[in-house]
Write a structure and sequence with these properties.
This protein is an alpha/beta fold. The protein is built from ten helices and ten strands. The radius of gyration is 19 Å and the shape is globular.
């Protein structure tokens, strides 16, 4: 697929999806969200092991593009927000770990993007905000992702005040995994993604899916679900290979994406 507002680059075992509309501060217009969804579907079906979400320009993402929204009726707004929700769900549905590499400010739905990714590494120059709390339109859908990353009081502080938090605060609150100087951002993001993608690709993909399925279930239901997933996945060739390799004291040989066992 040809993209106008995003770039997709493959390098070895990894793909990088880059928001590339800097003149609009990578605002999540309808077209941008549709292209991002298509890009994540593309890399999700590819043989790569992991995905980095990055951005060009002075902002990671300024959130929704109000030019798409002003004077729109309820039907149009509902559709636009459904497209946004589908994008967020797609990020969590693909089997590969997705890591947000955040070099600058991420606000509203841009902050939602970061919170939705499986992992995030931020530059010390990055900031995060859900500014609807100090405007006329509350950040209700970004709230879903943000409140699943950080505690209630901190989420409500971000949502109600609309004030930005710096990268170190985002780290302490649990919104990002690492904070590094700008010159170390690319290297640290790649290092963390490589660590997160070692081992069995198929096992990790099932584990990612199971994580999001169980995280908001009551504990008894979460255990019941996880038990069945873990029991079923024990029958996979990679699971058996991992057990045998451990017992035989040798490195395991896991299947590559798309590869079949003999």
């Amino acid at each position: 697929m040809q993209y106008e507002l995003v770039e997709v680059r493959y390098e070895g075992d990894y793909a990088t999806i880059t928001l590339n509309h800097p003149q609009r501060r990578n605002a999540l217009s309808l077209k941008m969200m549709e292209e991002l969804t298509a890009a994540f579907n593309e890399v999700g079906e590819s043989p790569v092991l992991g995905v980095i979400l990055a951005a060009n320009g002075p902002a990671f993402s300024a959130g929704h593009d109000f030019a798409d929204m002003v004077d729109q009726d309820l039907v149009a707004m509902r559709r636009l927000l459904q497209v946004c929700t589908h994008l967020m769900n797609t990020i969590q549905a693909i089997p590969q770990p997705v890591l947000a590499r955040v070099h600058a400010i991420a606000t509203a739905a841009g902050c939602q993007l970061v919170a939705t990714c499986d992992l995030a590494v931020a530059s010390t120059e990055a900031k995060f905000a859900t500014p609807g709390g100090k405007g006329g339109w509350f950040c209700t859908t970004p709230m879903v992702a943000v409140s699943r990353n950080i505690g209630r009081k901190r989420a409500l502080e971000m949502l109600l005040t609309g004030e930005p938090i710096d990268a170190q605060t985002a780290y302490e609150w649990g919104l990002v995994n690492r904070v590094v100087p700008p010159e170390c951002l690319v290297e640290e993001a790649q290092r963390l993604l490589e660590a997160a993608t070692r081992g069995s690709f198929i096992s990790k993909g099932l584990g990612k899916q199971a994580f999001y399925a169980q995280i908001d279930l009551p504990q008894p239901q979460a255990y019941a679900y996880a038990l069945e997933v873990m029991a079923a996945s024990s029958q996979l060739p990679d699971a058996q290979e991992g057990m045998r390799a451990f017992l035989e004291k040798r490195p395991p040989r896991f299947l590559r994406p798309g590869e079949r066992s003999e």
